[in-house]
Specification:
Layout: E1 3-9, H1 13-23, E2 31-34, E3 39-41, H2 46-50, E4 60-62, E5 72-74, E6 78-82, E7 87-90, E8 95-103, E9 108-109, H3 117-120, E10 126-127, H4 135-143, E11 148-154, H5 164-179, E12 185-191, H6 200-213, E13 216-219, E14 221-227, E15 232-237, E16 243-247, E17 250-252, E18 257-258, H7 261-264, E19 290-292, H8 305-323, E20 336-343, E21 346-352, H9 371-387
The chain binds flavin-adenine dinucleotide (FAD).
Flavin-adenine dinucleotide (FAD) is lined by residues 9-15, 34-37, 43-44, 46-47, 77-78, 104-106, 129-130, 160-161, 164, 260, 262, 294-296, 303-306, 308, 339.
């Protein structure tokens, strides 16, 4: 079969949620979902895996269990998009066509953009929570740390989960206090940006956390090279353009990220590389039968699964209206959320929208560190994800 009413490209958080919600409708369209991976990961758990709270296996489930019945799973990669002909080419060379397309390919991790990193990642103390393959080595480094310089990075590109690079600093600090090595340890956080968080209310709270914990934050420092065997990290000072070489005993890297190459090189891309959709309707600005959500979409908000929870119903309502040739009824306000783990058992739950103003769900000040919000992240949200969101129920 080579034509479908709706093709969903990518079966991650966004693709699976949209598929489930479309199938929940009274007369669901004929849908094909294109996804090469056999395993789906609940990536938000990786922060806690890196901190030793859960084994990494707890974040993984078979993709097949979450493809809604009735949806055709095409286990291939998209190799090229051709929106002028309503078609795309698969990894196996086949071409398929659609009436409507949903693009949900996520974000691309560009390990290779940092000189020396691919060669040393996973050894010489160089670790990262940003992949299933490297997240256990984070915990191994933290667990066995005997003191010295622990270095953490935050890149200059957009990333998924803007808070993840700093959450692991706070967990490391907490663990080093418990294991008795904190006094002989320096924690250095090199952040390519100019402030700790985009929303002032949470930035103020996080600056207090950093001061209390004695973490050294170096803003406008972008990691450009890792010399694994010498245990040296090289940063570019974005203000002075000078390079700074730092010795490390462990290095946690949050890698540079960008739109997937297959999008960047297609007519779907905005000049920034992301899928060029309207930020409110999620409809493509030039191809009205194309919609996009999640990390690959050109939406000026923080890229998270929590944002997709609010984007998916908007996309489904607007896609359904477009199929019926009606005006688009729904708008997305940029809602996103970042559960900022500040230690084992404490969390600041940031929630905000396109205006960078807090948009909190609970009737208390969420910028305060709380155990209840930590429990929500560690135990509540994973269950809500697997049993609710991916099933199209919320
Ligand atoms: P993904 O879920 O990444 O899915 C993309 C899918 O597309 C994948 O299945 C991939 O295999 C597939 N794909 C890629 N290329 C192709 C291709 N060419 N053809 C076909 N398929 C393709 N979010 C939160 O809400 N809260 C958090 O606390 C949080 N913490 C995080 C911590 C870490 C360490 C990380 C890494 C992420 C975290 N996130 C968090 C972010 C969240 O996981 C992502 O924002 C979310 O998964 C994005 O969903 P998506 O559908 O856009 O992309």
């Amino acid at each position: 079969k080579s034509h479908y009413q709706v093709i969903i490209a990518g079966g991650g958080t966004g693709g699976l949620t949209v598929a489930a919600q479309l199938m929940d409708q009274p007369n669901p369209p004929e849908i094909a979902l294109i996804e090469p991976a056999e395993v789906h990961y609940y990536q938000p758990l990786w922060t806690l895996v890196g901190g030793g709270v859960f084994p990494r296996e707890q974040s993984a489930r078979p993709e097949a269990d979450y493809i809604p019945p009735g949806v055709t799973w095409i286990k291939e990669k998209v190799k090229a998009f051709d929106p002028d002909n309503n078609s795309l080419t698969l990894g196996n060379g086949e071409t398929i066509t659609y009436d409507f397309l949903v693009v949900a390919l996520g974000i691309q991790i560009d390990w290779g953009k940092i000189k020396g990193l691919p060669e040393t990642l996973g050894k010489n103390g160089v670790c990262s929570n940003y992949s299933y393959d490297t997240v256990e080595y984070t915990w191994q480094n933290i667990r066995t740390f005997r003191g010295g310089n622990a270095v953490f990075t935050h890149p200059s590109t957009p990333i998924k989960c803007g808070g993840a690079p700093q959450k692991i600093v706070y967990l490391a600090d907490d663990y080093f206090r418990r294991s008795g090595v904190r006094q002989q340890t320096q924690l250095n956080f090199y952040h390519a940006g100019a402030s700790i968080f985009a929303v002032k209310k949470y930035a103020d709270a996080l600056n207090r956390v950093v001061a209390r914990k004695g973490i050294n934050v170096h803003f406008q420092h972008d990691l450009i090279e890792v010399r694994g065997e010498a245990r040296e990290a090289v940063f570019l000072n974005l203000a002075t353009r000078e390079t700074v070489t730092v010795n490390f005993d462990m290095l946690h890297v949050s890698p540079p990220q960008s739109a997937p190459d297959v999008i960047k090189s297609s007519a779907l891309a905005h000049s920034s590389g992301w899928v060029d959709v309207d930020q409110y309707t999620l409809q493509h600005k030039r191809y009205p039968n194309v919609f996009s959500l999640g990390d690959c979409a050109n939406l000026p908000t923080s890229k998270t699964g929590a944002a997709i929870r609010k984007q998916a119903p908007v996309l489904v309502a607007n896609l359904t209206a477009a199929m019926a040739k009606e005006t688009l009824p729904a708008t997305y306000d940029g809602y996103t959320s970042c559960p900022l783990v500040t230690g084992y058992g404490s969390l600041i739950l940031a929630e905000f929208d396109y205006t960078n103003q807090p948009k909190e769900s609970f009737p208390f000040d969420q910028s305060q560190e709380r155990y209840s919000m930590y429990a929500l992240k560690a135990y509540g949200l994973p269950a809500m994800y697997w049993n609710g969101m991916l099933r199209g129920r919320m």
